[in-house]
Amino acid sequence: MKRLLALGAVVLTSAALAWAGADSTPKTGSAAKPVITKAAKGEQCVEDTDYMRRNHMAVLDHHRDKTVIEGIRTKKHSLKECINCHASEKSGSVATAKEDFCVSCHSFAAVKIDCFDCHSTKPQGSVAMHPLNAETAHYRHQLAAQANSKVSAEEMAGVAQ
Amino acid sequence: MSELKSMSENAADSAQPNSPERRRFMGAATAAAAGLTIAPGVMLYSVAHGRSEGQPASSEVRWGMLVDATKCATGCSDCVSACSTENGWTPVAESQHPRQAPQWIRKLELQDPLTQMETNLPMMCQHCADAPCVDVCPTGASFKRADGIVLVNRHTCIGCRYCMMACPYKARSLVHESLNDTQKPDVPRGIGCVESCTLCVQKIDRGDGNTACAEACTAAGHNALLFGDMNDPESEISKRLRVLPTKQVRADLNLNLGVRYHGI
User: Fold this and answer.
1) How far apart are CA A15 and CA A109, in angstroms?
2) Given an 8 Å threshold on Cβ–Cβ distance, is A71 in contact with B201?
């Protein structure tokens, strides 16, 4: 009985090792790997890439409580700054298109992101890039109203588009 | 200061603990102490106003607002639209579901049924010092920041709406539907969470020292809204509050409001 158990243990360990080995050297042609685009702005992330890959959620969690409860708005670990650097040049966002920075990894790992239920996925000042959205339509009215004689409403609409 | 101390010791020795003399003296001593602390206090306040990014909000400050209803113009809703633009919420008139639409601030027009006198005023979160919404929140999501701003921590809000029930001012609203990435980067808000006026906390933390509604009111030339630090005796709002008769709405509830009204 003892021998049988030992054998079982050996089999299991070797299987686990084999699996780990396979993981470290990914087979080509298996599941599509996430596309990780380089941040549009900036050369180096605020922490090492390896550290960020494993711990970005802890870093963000810690910072969010500091910000919301205490009002500390340092830039280093703020989600807003992540978005400012990592927003895709194509979609202007970190989580709208499939290849966008956050989404590409999270869909590969099958981990749902809740951040963007509330947080904007786009950097500051890009609201005007999406004029077709009904919920932001009132910005356009205001832009047009402010335009007066200097700039026509059409021009402002053009700017917004 | 040492002189003061020895004097107070002497006084304590000579007078009975609760004698009127002692009381009078203590009153004078406190006033003197307050006078002394004004000088370093002023410096402290100025630091707190323009606090750096890494500094937490301080209880040295209590943000508040003075609403002068006598200057609030009929038909003007500049404060409301400025708030919606700053914070990215859809105004009621443009909402597909007006009865569910968020209202961080709204204009009220009141009429005295006997005299027909009309009063205009904006109503929003009153930033109570003893806020009922904070008391009832089962998750601690509704909280008062050190500088007196009552906020909702959306990370812990479960959308139960107890706070909406508890609020005597109907100041809170729930976001019923997904906002589809229309939020402003500075003002996260989203489905299933309760929200209300934040006194433009993003602007305060940036050091603007004013709210969008007060800025709009001043820009429109009405000057009915005055925002400032009620703890700083030298601030404009404190000076005005000292001379102007003001009321707290539902003062009977004894909530010590951060928003005071004149002319109601």
Assistant:
1) 22
2) yes
Cα–Cα distance measured from residue B132 to residue B235, given in angstroms and rounded to the nearest whole number:
28
Cβ-nearest to A138 among B56, B91, B192: B91
Architecture of domain B63-262: 2-Layer Sandwich (3.30)
Better-predicted residue by pLDDT, A25 or B245 = B245
Q: Mark yes or no for CB contact A122/B94 under 8 Å.
A: no
Cα gap A14→B202, rounded to integer Å: 55
Residue A85's identity, in one-letter code, is C
Determine, for residues B184 and A64 on separate chains, whether the beta-carbon distance falls below 8 Å: no
pTM of the model: 0.72
In 3D space, the residue among B126, B202, B255, B233 whose CA is nearest the CA of residue A71 turns out to be B202
Contacts of A80 in chain B (CB under 8 A): 185-186
List phi, psi (to 5°) of B102.
-65, 145
Cβ distance B184 to A135 less than 8 Å, yes or no, reads no
Q: For residue B69, how many other CB atoms are within 10 A of its CB?
A: 18
Which residues does chain A have within 8 Å of residue B180's beta carbon, measured at their own beta carbons?
133, 135
Q: Specify whether the CB–CB gap between B187 and B200 falls below 8 A.
A: no
Min Cα separation B31/chain A (Å): 32
Could you report the per-residue pLDDT of B35-91, keeping only the tens digit for each?
444 444 444 444 445 688 889 999 999 999 999 999 999 999 999 999 999 999 999
Please tell me the total number of residues recorded for chain A in this structure. Answer: 161
B182 contact residues in A (CB cutoff 8 A):
127, 130, 133, 135-136
Q: What is the pLDDT of residues A77-112, one digit of tens each?
A: 999 999 999 999 888 999 998 889 999 999 999 999
**Secondary structure (3-state) at B195:** strand
Q: Tokens 């990914």 correspond to what residue?
A: A26
Give ipTM to 2 decimals. 0.77
